[in-house]
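Protocol step 4 of 5: obtain the predicted structure for the target chain.
Materials: sequence only (see below). No template structures provided, no constraints applied. The aim of this step is simply to have a reference model before the mutagenesis design in step 5. Sequence pasted as it appears in the construct record:
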Amino acid sequence: MKKKVFSSGGMDGESRVEGYNYGKYPIHKFRGSSSPGLFFPLWPYACGMDEWRKECFRKRTFSDTFAVEYVQRGVFIFQQDDITMHVNPGEIFLVHLGRNSSMRCETAFATKRTIIMQGELLHSVLETLGLTGISHIVPREQERIDRFFDRIYDLMEDTSPEGQREISIACYALLTELAGQSSVLRHPEDLRRALEYIHSHLNEPLSLKELVRYSGVSHATLHRQFRKHLKTSPISYFLDRKLERARGLLENHLYSIKEVAEMMNYASPQYFASEFKKRYGVPPKNFKLKHTR
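Step 4 output (structure tokens):
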């Protein structure tokens, strides 16, 4: 078999995937689904099994994907945020949104179960559960993880409203389970309260006074918590999440750029377009055109 160069994605700050295939590998045995709409803000885009060879390689730049990767056989070498992890069978690695990462096999052959999640509230859920700072999980109860993967895979073919509701609930339950089984310390309670406040007020001007009151700690303490755990300030965090919410609304194809700017309380569509381009490297008009093809 021959090694083939693989490349997919955009330029100028957009997500990009590149690497090498080896013959027919990696093989993706996935079930996919289409967006269930705004009523289900967390859902699986794809779920299934991956088969890899040692010669395969993938590198993601500014990832537009969040994936739960559950190793079944062999060993994967996963790098994210300049940290290299050797992930063994029964262990999990998380491919995070907006980050740079790479993966390959350490062994001649390896398999993993994959769930790719999407949804307007995905980032909010990950932040609230403290999973954004976690890349590698060694589950204490693998049987429970197996059942979640089986459940989500089985529900992928159910397109009824009840099935879509159940699969959204199952995705949230899996993320909660992963947070609970992770041995990594999560965000302190006062910071979690602050994050909850921010995520529920993204379409309003941020009131630092109200944020401090809701979190239950002083202004200085809250700033230290953000710097320590999130490497940013409350204002910067709020503005980043606000843009991510706007991006999610554009991806749903239901609203114009002007409507999104109004919904998210930007001063004007022009200001929104300027901030969007600074963050994602392309104007919202180009982004919307790409995602409506």
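Step 4 remarks: The mean pLDDT is 87. The first helix runs from residue 122 to 129.
Proceed to step 5.
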